[in-house]
Specification:
- It contains 13 helices and two strands; from the N terminus they run αααααααββαααααα.
- Strands 1-2 form a two-stranded antiparallel ribbon.
- β1 and β2 form a beta hairpin.
- It starts with a helix and ends in a 13-residue tail after the last helix.
């Protein structure tokens, strides 16, 4: 049980704790719509924080940050009034009633959310240890791996909105991080990149943890496929067919299937047919990935040939 509750106050753990506190507070307090997405996002971060730093530190910090965020929102939060609400009194009244109901709920069940954060931190730690117990290359975040992870997160956030004509490159740093640092790190880096990208450049829609999941899976799925494929590790990462197949599966699951599905569920205009709207989004995403998948594979194969001579991303100490 020591691996679950021990506290290791390394600089990397302290930096991670600060990042999770800030992200949790932002998600809850700055949620523009009076719905539970921000709170669910903070609870999702508790899973990741618990997985990385254990229940004592990860769960404790997550619980305290959620408690403080809810208290601050209850006492100092206010309904964000949009232009549409100013023009439509009925809409304003409905949104105000929804917001007040939300505030009343989180005030009444505050302690349950705090305990839930601790429980989810335990779940995250359990999953993390189970996934890494037989893997000599994947350990707790060392200072070196945290540095590499932070580098990929920063790169992913920086080019999140980069476009060169029809092409976008937002998913490539996440895919690359998973391929070279392992599926667990790819999942974590993808999730954190999506959250920080939203903080830096919020979209017109409210934050939604469903898209954090798709970003996390973008880093997880290709890396897992390559990891499970037979053969020597270096040879697998130079196998063009395997890399292309792994990236294709990852992009089909996330960008072609899950993202259109979530877009349809969350943002489908009233009166539209569910399947018509879904297949429209699905078709556009599929056409886009016909060019993006080979582009990402080409970039990975050629970048890795050069970078692997200078960096060994998986050279880490044995886990305790």
């Amino acid at each position: 049980m020591k691996k679950y509750y021990s506290i290791d106050l390394k600089l990397s753990s302290i930096i991670a704790a600060i990042m999770f506190v800030v992200a949790s507070f932002f998600l809850i307090f700055n949620q523009t719509n009076p719905i539970f997405l921000g709170l669910f996002g903070a609870l999702f971060l508790a899973v990741i924080h618990g997985g990385l730093n254990g229940v004592a530190l990860g769960g404790g910090i997550s619980a305290l940050s959620i408690l403080a965020s809810i208290w601050y929102k209850v006492n100092y939060g206010a309904l964000k009034v949009t232009k549409a609400m100013k023009k439509d009194a009925a809409l304003y009244a409905a949104k105000e009633a929804e917001y007040n109901a939300f505030i009343s709920h989180i005030k009444s069940y505050m302690i349950l959310y705090v305990l839930g954060a601790i429980a989810l931190a335990f779940v995250g730690r359990y999953i993390y240890l189970k996934l890494t117990e037989d893997d000599r290359d994947v350990t707790h975040f060392s200072a070196k791996s945290l540095t590499y992870g932070a580098m990929f997160v920063a790169l992913g956030v920086a080019i999140n909105t980069l476009r060169v004509g029809y092409f976008s490159f937002g998913g490539f740093p996440i895919i690359y991080s998973g391929m070279v640092m392992g599926p667990i790190n790819g999942f974590i880096i993808g999730a954190i990149t999506d959250v920080l990208a939203f903080l830096v450049r919020p979209s017109a829609n409210a934050f939604n943890p469903l898209f954090v999941l798709t970003s996390a899976l973008t880093g997880f799925i290709p890396a897992l496929i390559v990891k499970l494929a037979p053969g020597e590790d270096k040879a697998k990462h130079q196998n063009a067919f395997l890399v292309l197949f792994a990236i294709a599966v990852g992009q089909i699951v996330t960008s072609v299937l899950l993202v259109p599905l979530f877009m349809t569920i969350l943002y489908m205009p009233q009166g539209e047919s569910f399947w018509a709207y879904f297949f429209l989004k699905f078709g556009n995403a599929a056409l886009k990935q016909l060019t993006h998948v080979p582009l990402y594979a080409f970039l990975y194969l050629n970048t890795q040939r050069v970078v692997s001579r200078q960096f060994n991303f998986n050279h880490k100490k044995q886990a305790d």
